[in-house]
Amino acid sequence: MQSDKKILFTDLDGTLLNDEKLISPGNQAAIDELLAKGHAIVISTGRSLPSALMLAERLGFSGEGCYVIAWNGGQIYDLYHQKTIYSRTLPRALARPLFDAAAARGIHIQTYDRTHVLSEHDNQMLRDYERFTGHCFRVVPDIGRALTTDPYKILAIHYDSHEYLETFRRDVLSAYPDTVSSFFSSDTYLEIVPKGVSKGSAIRWMCEYMDIPLENSVAAGDAQNDISMLEAAHIGAVMRNAFPGVAEHGDYVTKADNNHDGLAEIIRRFIL
């Protein structure tokens, strides 16, 4: 066991990044110091790997000790060695019935191949997602034919009613208890991933893979899809700007929010 090495798992939006989707100089300085002292940092996000890699490149996360957990834990990528070290996917046959059920309920739904977001309908939610994540979309006539590989996740979106998504989760996803896990990354995004996949399970896998004691792990997050990692890490640090109900799952709540170096506060308190 590497008893002195610590590992930080950080969410992107609302945690590492400010509201302008940028990393502040204060957060950057704390991360640079963390890496210089031989600790590790893992971007842990619900975003796709292509989207996370674009951000990692922009943030300069390419050295030894830099990793990405993408798709809420479905894929883990070593940024230094540029290779996937863990992968779990959904069966592609699941897409057709879920797309049909979502369309019948007026819910936008999308999935992913290795390069694009895939949807059967062009709409504002799809275009907003591309602008928000940088992940280009492709509209296809038949998702069953378009998917040639098993996807890492499926995402259901509804802007106007969280209850629509709750009902979809209860009435549709409950039919697949041995296949999928689902949780919200925001009030409007319902994440659908392989059974057992979560940011929390990825933390446990990463610590074992890197031979770092779980006691040396710190997780930082703000949203519902961060809860599993806040509970799995030795220290679960919740951002001051977190969504309601998230703070009760952590050990510490920052004094500063994501716009005022909240992550740097966590790094200096628990890592350095």
Explain what this protein looks like in three dimensions.
The chain has 272 residues and is of the alpha/beta class. It folds into two domains: 156 residues, HAD superfamily/HAD-like (Rossmann fold), CATH 3.40.50.1000; 103 residues, Hypothetical Protein, Haloacid Dehalogenase-like Hydrolase, Chain: A, domain 2 (2-Layer Sandwich). The chain is built from nine helices and 14 strands. The strands form two sheets. Strands 5-4-3-2-1-12-13-14 form an eight-stranded mixed sheet, sandwiched between helices. A six-stranded mixed sheet has the order 8-7-6-9-11-10, with helices on both faces. Helix 4 links the parallel strand 7 and strand 8. Helix 1 runs parallel beside helix 9. The protein starts with 6 loop residues before the first strand and ends with a helix. The relative contact order is 0.18. The model has no long low-confidence stretch (mean pLDDT 96).
